[in-house]
Amino acid sequence: MAPEKLHWKELYKQVVTSGLCTGCAACVIVCPHDVLDYDASEGRYKPFHLDIDGGAADCTHTSCTMCTRACPRFQSWETEIDTHRFGAERSDDQVFGHSIEVVLARTTDTQLAEVGQDGGFVSALLTYALENDIIDAALVSGFEGDGSGWQTKPMVVRNRAEVEATAGSRYTYCANTLAYAEAIEGGAERIALVGMGCQASAPGAMQARKAGKVARRLGLTIGLLCSKTFDDAIFEELFEAKYQVKREDIVKMNIKGVFQLWLRDGSYVEVPLKECHAWTREGCKACPDFAAEHADISCGGIGTFSDWTMTIVRTEQGANLLNAMKDAGLVEIKPGDEDPAGIELLRKLAKLSRKRWPETADPGPRRIPVTSA
Ligand SMILES: Cc1cc2nc3c(=O)[nH]c(=O)nc-3n(C[C@H](O)[C@H](O)[C@H](O)COP(=O)(O)OP(=O)(O)OC[C@H]3O[C@@H](n4cnc5c(N)ncnc54)[C@H](O)[C@@H]3O)c2cc1C
Ligand code: SF4
Ligand code: SF4
Fold this sequence. Notes:
- With about 375 residues, this protein is of the alpha+beta class.
- Helices cover about 30% and strands about 20% of the residues.
- It has 3 domains: about 10-75, Alpha-Beta Plaits (2-Layer Sandwich); about 95-230 and about 280-365, no CATH class; about 235-280, Nuclear Transport Factor 2, Chain: A (Roll), CATH 3.10.450.
- A hairpin with an 8-residue loop joins strand 4 (about 135-145) and strand 5 (about 150-155).
- Helix 4 (about 75-85) crosses helix 10 (about 200-210).
- The radius of gyration is 20 Å and the shape is globular.
């Protein structure tokens, strides 16, 4: 159902102030009247409407429906996107979404392997797509300043050096979509979006509901598996206060059952995840999508094999890219079946996330298999 007459007033009521808003910023980047902005300060990560033109809760552009068309949490978003992208709604058993295959992938490029979070596959894919004229630019997460403060910043990458400089994972939120305007200013027309499920569903929502040029330009989506992000305050209030780890001393972080921190002096610290829960970002608490279900390819670090990226191929475009990279010798692939425990964990985490979606909202995302883990 296309939300024909639904505009900001409805989005504000049904998503922004109802607990469903993830802060993905899709509504902000599609607004043709530039009356939406984004507040990333003090862990808020929320869109807001400028006071001129309707105030916080309303919008004077009453015939404009762009923000509700773009929002990947508005009304029956999951079914609409699934039907548009995959030709059918998700069955209960497709708990991590539609897929063609699941493989384990890692880059054969030693430099990208070094900077990548898991198998460096995302960076290899971006590099391949940029160097083979498949995309003009990609929207990713970079750093404020020299990166030593671990503060994230939405960024545009256009070449290998920029991909390398922005590789790896940060576990605080970064609305990569917000780099869209800069990509357009730089002349990009074919743009890839890298992002967790909340952002990876945005291009699909825009395409399903015909949100114009932005929808057309965001033609490739690389999803990141994700169960939550944390408030930036976790650095001072937990890592420093309890573990005496300063943010500028961290050189790498990962989450594998525990929050892992590698430090500049060569030491390593593990923080139990249950201690981190108090810093869970508000926008993640109702999120039902662990597996970035609407991406072309979704990538994660779970499973038995470290240094490999668990890769869910969902669309023909994703499959073609993976095969082209394999043929060019840029990536090593193993079937996902070689890691049954990893696949089981994928299903389990996907199921857990789905249970977070409120019973009062559209029932689609909460549907899960009755029996399996
Ligand atoms: C916030 C977050 C939570 C995650 N949670 C899980 C999880 O619970 N389970 C799991 O299996 N995998 C999770 N992942 C995915 C995992 O950390 C890796 O990103 C994934 O396995 C790809 O690895 P890679 O080596 O192929 O990626 P790389 O080649 O290192 O590329 C990673 C890409 O992610 C982008 N990126 C980094 N940080 C952010 C951010 N904060 N926001 C948006 N984009 C970012 C980078 O700019 C880069 O383009 C999470 C990732 C993020 C960012
Ligand atoms: S979920 Fe995203 S598109 Fe929807 S209201 Fe929130 S920021 Fe905007
Ligand atoms: S859990 Fe991950 S995918 Fe869901 S809203 Fe939070 S950051 Fe986005």
